[in-house]
Design brief:
With about 100 residues, the chain is mostly helical. It is built from five helices and two strands; from the N terminus they run H-E-H-E-H-H-H. It has a two-stranded parallel sheet. The N and C termini lie far apart (about 60 Å).
């Protein structure tokens, strides 16, 4: 059985900011996005998916640890940080263009 890919990037970041531990696929950019916010599994291996979910279900300590990791990871995707990073990038590109034009 193949797991459906129905949760988009924004749903995942919303789950992070809500402090939810997330059992997710170890594919694509998911590990980069979620960091240490939950156990990972092979999306094409139902036994591995079950294992990841069971880890969260069976361990209140693990759920609490991953919930804290979720909240911490969500800080990397705040609107404030996104705006600041975008403005910094735009300023750097503008400065580079001005230097290349010799103005």
């Amino acid at each position: 059985m193949r797991a459906k890919r129905t949760i988009g990037r924004f749903d995942r970041t919303g789950a992070l900011s809500a402090g939810l531990p997330i059992a997710c696929a170890n594919r694509s950019a998911v590990p980069e996005l979620l960091g240490n916010a939950g156990p990972y599994s092979d999306p094409e291996a139902s036994q591995d998916n079950a294992r990841a979910l069971r880890e969260l279900i069976d361990s209140p300590r693990l759920r609490a640890e991953k919930a804290r990791a979720s909240i911490a990871r969500a800080q990397d995707y705040s609107w404030k940080r996104g705006t600041t990073d975008t403005q910094s990038f735009q300023a750097a590109v503008t400065l580079l263009a001005v230097r290349e034009d010799g103005r």
